[in-house]
Amino acid sequence: MQNNSLVSISDFTKDEMLELLEDMKYFEANPNRRLLEGKVVATLFFEPSTRTRLSFETAVNRLGGRIIGFSDASTTSSSKGETLKDTIMMVNNYVDLIIMRHYLEGAARYASEVSRVPIINAGDGANQHPSQTMLDLYSIYKTQGTLRDLTITMVGDLKYGRTVHSLLMAMSYFNPKFNFVACDELKMPQEYKDFCDEHGIAYTETRDFSPEVINSSDIIYMTRVQRERFTDLMEYERVKNIYNLHNSMLDNSKDNVRILHPLPRVGEISQDVDSNPKAYYFQQAQNGLYARQAIICKVLGIDVKSLRENER
Amino acid sequence: MSDKNILAVAALQNGTVIDHIPTELVFDVVRLLGIEDLDSSVTIGFNLDSKKLGKKGILKVADVFFPDETLNRLAIVAPNVNVNIINDYKVVKKFKVTLPDEIKGIVRCNNVKCITNNEPMTTHFHVVDKDKVIIRCHYCERSIEKNEIELQ
């Protein structure tokens, strides 16, 4: 990892992920710590993403740092044809950390190679979004009390949905069992099933979002079928409403099951699920703040562990 | 290899012979080795009869000894070609090319949304399966199988 950047969840070892979960727990209990006093952070959003940007900017603010940046590349020189490299070379003169989102895949990896300051990838096209994975892991850890030996059902867009791919990789350390529920057009790519086989991870693959699948799950991870990932809009119209979760479908589910969703949702989870205590997607989004605080400190080399231990 | 082929190889005094090139890949091999930029004499055989391949190509490059790194590029498109190093009409070294662990440049990522196709920069791939020839883009992380590999 060059200059401590975070581009992909695979940049972290298992131990680093476990440490980060403890850091996140610390920030949940102590969200306002002025650990970034005197630091300036850039949020470069070449592709708009209000939710992710607000979450990162809140994290910086709660840590006492300052922010520069843009939320829409059409107002910047990249719309005049400036290369990504030039934008990064300019911005890294001004700041201590760059948080970026880009519509092109691999943009964050490339930026991390040219930048003198650390880069945090806040999403590069359909590729990686590691802070989302950390908040997903934390949500699972917090609701289940463990990451080990869980049955995780992933539903919806398993082909283009980067969150499920990253979560699958991250969970592979903890002996999970997966159920992949998707239609043929959106099923889990072969390379991830090969990955499961190579790591001895059990999985089932069904088109049916059946009671058996729901009732055996500890975590149900719902995803949105995203229009922007389709080149064929006819195909999108055909598949967008196949996998919707209604409250009655949870009647015989396990007590500990929690419903996760990276949000925004469209129709995948009906409103009547919201009041069910098994619904966890709004708290999950809140965990995003702690994940981003922990990640920002980690890439800047701020020792949260000592802080945790001293304050115990 | 037949006697006739050995004769053909031996006809070069010093240099490099690339043999058993699938005939449709001859010009890819020419390009990968940068033959266009050489000053030395080069013989390009195309659509020659071959017991193994049916039709094959062969390349004889006089007085040039390519670095292994350059030769191993050939494995990206043609993993079974033979390289013969000729010194004073004799084959002094003979080997099959092997895929390197990493490939920089040469190959284009076939993901149109990859940063490498939108920014003036060098492509970079990790070879994830040498037998099946599967490479993965260092940037967008997409895997590319042998039959989908496109040269730049």
Describe what this molecule looks like in 3D.
The complex is a heterodimer of chains A (312) and B (152). With 312 residues, chain A is of the alpha/beta class. Chain A folds into 2 domains: 2-129 and 288-306, Rossmann fold (3-Layer(aba) Sandwich), CATH 3.40.50; 131-285, Rossmann fold (3-Layer(aba) Sandwich). Chain A has 11 helices and 9 strands. Chain A has a 5-stranded parallel beta sheet, with helices on one face. In chain A, strands 2-1-3-4 form a 4-stranded parallel beta sheet, sandwiched between helices. In chain A, helix 1 (14-29) crosses helix 5. The longest helix of chain A is centred in the last third of the chain and has 19 residues, at 281-299. Chain A is globular and about 55 Å long. The model of chain A has no long low-confidence stretch (mean pLDDT 93). Chain B folds into 2 domains: 3-96, Aspartate carbamoyltransferase regulatory subunit, N-terminal domain (Alpha-Beta Plaits), CATH 3.30.70; 102-151, Aspartate carbamoyltransferase regulatory subunit, C-terminal domain (SH3 type barrels, Roll), CATH 2.30.30. In chain B, strand 4 (82-87) and strand 5 form a beta hairpin. Chain B has helices spanning 3-10, 26-32, 68-72, and strands at residues 15-22, 42-50, 54-62, 82-87, 90-96, 102-104, 107-108, 124-129, 134-137, 143-145, 150-151. Chain B is elongated, with a radius of gyration of 16 Å. Chain B contains 3 helices and 11 strands. The A-B interface holds A 8, 83-85, 102-107, 109-110, 124-128, 191 and B 111, 113-116, 118-121, 137-143.
